[in-house]
């Protein structure tokens, strides 16, 4: 983990209130792995305690990118970053997705939860590993990918304006109801908690391995403040040890296997 002053290469809206910023950050780029995130100071004299965490969405030639929605003051400032401006970031933070051997990846992103999924997808694409990618959004104007079922890319919208009507679970059902020889699926997902909990349930019902990247509220981002605790599934030898009952999303995660944690 380093504290780096990055240069803004570009920063623009790629779909309705979905923004992408590309940052030249050679040090973080050199160390980063899919699933990891950065903690951002949105402006130089940011008066708030908490930086703003964002998943790394891509990593190429010393440049990393983030994909974000403007939801409050910090992300409003981030959307105002101009090409060439300098920004203070800490990273890479957190863990990474598990290694894949012969498991078949189904990657799922809900809203801006697509960010750490796209970084993982880049890895599979560059290694020629076949996979499915599902992205869910409320409506068509929030999508910046193409619905392309023949290429394993399924988009869903709540209102049916693009792709499959309904949630990402509909797309998962479509995959599982299509005859196939594949037996060893593994799901990797990131998005809002209700979506992740529905995927956790689906994976449990179908006995599929499932990993999620959580976007739990956090402050320091590296294990100091204890502000990002996640309740673990109870095991019989948990006793009274706090660390056996709780994990920290920032250092033990953000990626967790769903059967390790109570809720997403
Ligand atoms: C590991 C991680 C990765 C993330 N990756 C992305 C990403 O790739 N793209 C993206 O758009 N968002 C991501 N988020 C959420 C993002 O950090 C918040 O949207 C952002 O901090 C909001 O800041 P704000 O000042 O604009 O909003 P605020 O005005 O502070 O709050 C608006 C809402 O944002 C949420 N929020 C605020 N601060 C945090 C925080 N420190 N951590 C989590 N949620 C917060 C709260 O739900 C709040 O209601 C991620 C969060 C985490 C923990
Ligand atoms: S955010 Fe401070 S311990 Fe996790």
What can you tell me about this protein's structure?
This protein is α/β, with parallel strands linked by helices and 264 residues long. It has 2 domains: 2-93, Translation factors (Elongation Factor Tu (Ef-tu), domain 3, Beta Barrel), CATH 2.40.30.10; 104-215, 3-Layer(aba) Sandwich (Rossmann fold), CATH 3.40.50.80. It contains 6 helices and 16 strands. The chain has helices at 26-31, 73-79, 114-126, 168-176, 193-205, 242-245, and strands at 2-15, 18-24, 37-41, 52-55, 58-60, 63-68, 86-93, 104-110, 132-137, 153-157, 164-165, 185-190, 209-213, 229-231, 246-248, 255-257. The strands form 3 sheets. It has a 7-stranded antiparallel β-sheet. Strand 8 (104-110), helix 3 and strand 9 form a beta-alpha-beta unit. The radius of gyration is 18 Å and the shape is globular. The two termini are 25 Å apart.
Brief overview:
The chain is 20% helix and 33% strand.
Element order: H for helix, E for strand: EEHEEEEHEEHEEEHEHEEHEE
Question: Strand order, biggest sheet?
Answer: 4-3-7-1-2-6-5
Termini, distance in Å?
Answer: 25 Å
How many domains make up the 3D coordinates? 2
Largest sheet: 7 strands, antiparallel
- Radius of gyration (CA) equals 18 Å
CATH H-level superfamily title of the largest domain: Nucleotide-binding domain of ferredoxin-NADP reductase (FNR) module
Task: Flag low-confidence runs.
Answer: none
Query: Residue share in helices?
Result: 10-25%
What structural category do the secondary elements indicate? alpha/beta
How much β-strand is present in the residues? 25-35%
The CATH architecture of the largest domain comes to 3-Layer(aba) Sandwich
Mean pLDDT: 95
The coarse silhouette is: globular
Q: What is the CATH topology descriptor of the largest domain?
A: Rossmann fold
Number of strands: 16
Q: What is the CATH class of the largest domain?
A: Alpha Beta
Number of helices: 6
Bound molecules: flavin-adenine dinucleotide, FE2/S2 (inorganic) cluster
